[in-house]
Amino acid sequence: MDRVVIGEAVELDVRTARLPSRTLAFALDALIMVTLLFAVLLVIELAGSEVDDALAAAAGLAITVGVFVGYPLLWETLTRGRSPGKYAMGLRVVRTDGGPIVFRHALARSLAGFIVDFGLLSFFTGLIGIVVSATTVRSQRVGDLLAGTVVVRERLPRTGLDSLPPPDPALAGWAQRCELADLPDDLALTARQFLVRAAQLAPPMRAQLAGRLAADVAARVAPPPPPGTPPEAYLLAVLGERRRREAARLGGSGYGPPPASYAAPNPAPNPAPNPAPNPAPQSPFGPPPAPPPGPAPIPTAVPPPAPAHRDDPDPAPTTGGFAPPG
Question: Which is the most buried residue in 71, 110, 143, 178, by most CB within 10 A?
Answer without folding.
Answer: 143
